[in-house]
């Protein structure tokens, strides 16, 4: 019976207000009935107004976290969050190639939800060339898909083409999250391309809310959790879409400005 309960790993930073990063991942693992573990790579001092300071942990300490987890546990799937520089990405890649932590979901945190680039060029290059080829699933947002492919996405056909370009980088399965910033927008369309070449669209209503912190974390964490429980990648992505949509739809009154999504509201999703 040792280690039979589904265990999932997040490789991410700590967000002090609990709305995103490692905390959002662990919230998600819990509501999906999996046991969440973490390799902490950074910490930020932030609240609903924004991030005020950030520190990356020493690489040797990050290495040791991977080592001790591998010595004891049977991690069935993992996901990455924000990896801020090329050296950190290289450390994560080396550890993932050394230890068996199951299929990897890469949330390529390259830009903010509004398109501001977060990674310097060397870190972007390392993510694209070293980390993404290890991914079982990648979950870029609209802006990240444009940066990864050099495409301007102006239509659903462009969105699908971007997914094919990302798959050519070595990623097996991709969900390209759609544009969701128009004032009169009614719907968001996410495109999914699977390793076997099949594809489908996932559509949901657009919610005009400032409580969207942790949406990308929750989507990618749910995919990892469902894979750890034995779901197919396609079903894991569908479940993740439903969980994230439910968590956005029912706003939670936390913070003064940009708040978290509501994980409690998503607990009933099958």
Automatic annotation (TrEMBL):
Pfam family, one: Phos_pyr_kin
CDD domains in the cross-refs: HMPP_kinase
GO MF annotations in UniProt: ATP binding; hydroxymethylpyrimidine kinase activity; phosphomethylpyrimidine kinase activity
Pathway(s) this gene product operates in, as recorded in its UniProt entry: Cofactor biosynthesis; thiamine diphosphate biosynthesis; 4-amino-2-methyl-5-diphosphomethylpyrimidine from 5-amino-1-(5-phospho-D-ribosyl)imidazole: step 2/3; Cofactor biosynthesis; thiamine diphosphate biosynthesis; 4-amino-2-methyl-5-diphosphomethylpyrimidine from 5-amino-1-(5-phospho-D-ribosyl)imidazole: step 3/3
Organism: Leuconostoc pseudomesenteroides
GO annotation (BP), single: thiamine biosynthetic process
Catalysed reaction, written as an equation: 4-amino-5-hydroxymethyl-2-methylpyrimidine + ATP = 4-amino-2-methyl-5-(phosphooxymethyl)pyrimidine + ADP + H(+); 4-amino-2-methyl-5-(phosphooxymethyl)pyrimidine + ATP = 4-amino-2-methyl-5-(diphosphooxymethyl)pyrimidine + ADP
Gene symbol of the encoding locus: thiD
Record GO cellular component, one term: cytosol
InterPro entries in the cross-refs: HMP/HMP-P_kinase_dom, PM/HMP-P_kinase-1, Ribokinase-like
Entry keyword set: ATP-binding, Kinase, Nucleotide-binding, Thiamine biosynthesis, Transferase
Record-given protein name: Hydroxymethylpyrimidine/phosphomethylpyrimidine kinase
Highest taxon of the lineage: Bacteria
EC nos: 2.7.1.49, 2.7.4.7
Family as reported in the entry's similarity comment: Belongs to the ThiD family.
Coiled-coil portions: none
Keyword Nuclease: no
């Amino acid at each position: 019976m040792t280690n039979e309960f589904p265990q999932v790993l997040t490789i991410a930073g700590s967000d002090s207000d609990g709305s995103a990063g490692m905390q959002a991942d662990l919230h998600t693992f819990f509501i999906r009935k999996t046991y969440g573990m973490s390799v902490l790579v950074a910490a930020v001092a932030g609240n609903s107004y924004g991030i005020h300071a950030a520190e990356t942990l020493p690489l040797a300490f990050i290495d040791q976290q991977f080592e001790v987890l591998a010595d004891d546990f049977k991690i069935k799937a993992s996901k990455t969050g924000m990896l801020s520089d090329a050296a950190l990405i290289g450390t994560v890649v080396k550890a993932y190639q050394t230890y068996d932590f199951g299929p990897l979901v890469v949330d390529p945190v390259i830009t903010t939800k509004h398109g501001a680039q977060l990674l310097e060029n060397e870190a972007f290059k390392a993510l694209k060339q070293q980390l993404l080829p290890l991914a079982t699933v990648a979950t870029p947002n609209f802006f990240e898909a444009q940066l990864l492919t050099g495409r301007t996405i102006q239509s659903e056909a462009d969105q699908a083409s971007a997914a094919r370009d990302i798959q050519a980088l070595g990623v097996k399965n991709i969900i390209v999250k759609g544009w969701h910033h128009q004032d009169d927008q009614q719907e968001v369309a996410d495109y999914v391309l699977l390793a076997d070449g099949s594809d489908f669209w996932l559509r949901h209503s657009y919610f005009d809310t400032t409580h969207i912190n942790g949406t990308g974390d929750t989507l990618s964490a749910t995919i990892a959790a469902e894979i750890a429980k034995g779901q197919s990648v396609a079903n894991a992505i569908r479940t993740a879409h439903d969980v994230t949509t439910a968590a956005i739809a029912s706003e939670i009154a936390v913070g003064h400005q940009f708040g978290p999504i509501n994980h409690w509201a998503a607990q009933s999703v099958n």
